[in-house]
TrEMBL record:
Annotated transmembrane regions: none
Name of one Pfam family that matches: TPR_EMC2
Name of protein: ER membrane protein complex subunit 2
Gene source species: Thamnocephalis sphaerospora
InterPro entries: EMC2-like, TPR-like_helical_dom_sf, TPR_EMC2
Function summary: Part of the endoplasmic reticulum membrane protein complex (EMC) that enables the energy-independent insertion into endoplasmic reticulum membranes of newly synthesized membrane proteins.
Subunit structure: Component of the ER membrane protein complex (EMC).
A cellular-component GO term for this protein: EMC complex
Domain EMC2 TPR-like residues, every copy: 84-193
Amino acid sequence: MARLSNAQLAAQLAEFRQRCDGPPDLVVQYGQELITNGYADQLGDEVWGFYEQLFVAALHTAHWALAQSCLDALHERFPSSTRVRRLDGMLHEAKGNLDVAGQLYRGILEEDETNMLATKRQIAILKGRGRTQEAITALVAFLDTYHADQEAWLELCDLYLSACMYAQALFCVEEVILMQPQNPGLHLKCAEILYTQDQVAMALKSYCRVVELSPTHTRAWYGVKLCATRLLRTSGTGGANRGSAEAASVPKSAMLRDLDALATDRLSAVYASTPAATRTDQPTVRTVVEAWLQAAST
């Protein structure tokens, strides 16, 4: 593969910044190359966004010296910036100096109690200390003010899941689905929480929504298969083991059989081209999946 020019590296990093993503390893690699080549000095005012981007990637990859050099550059340019002080706190967090990080965040909030990002970092410290219930309480209070913060809703969902509070976790992910109804990952999370709660019929509907949005989503097809199989096995009981609302939402047996067959076909097709085993006594992924599909259908 041809080596990227400095301009191409800078353009790729700018695209990562715009999309708010990018593999940290790659960001560090590209960023270090631009600094080594002296090209970072040619970025103009964009260099500060570049340094912050590189700083965060360096934290993710434990490049402490690189993170510190980026932070020093930002401190020199913006000596009174609360944003840079928050980055300083994040560096202490990443190194495990939670007390120092907490002091920095408290100092920011004493000057500006509405600083949303500093508040979120304080909640992250509670989570890092394993104080789950306090983190939940703090996030609930945070969302009372910043109701549209999707990241906070998902973080609260995960905290509830870690505490086995599935009904509350489901509420959180449903709030985000209202904001991003076309996101298959959110519907998948909803489906798996419902399945964990043994709300199989409702979980099946959510899994079907995932494959409607993303027809090749293998994990969702597994969910469809599991739910359809379970519902077919219990259909003879008339829903005796389910609540009235759950029983009323169960699809008819003919539809369940169609969904079960469709899921089997889709999953079989996924593994149809897997390579053969290296040993004659070693099963292939395909044979294992086919055996599972056959067993699930009997």
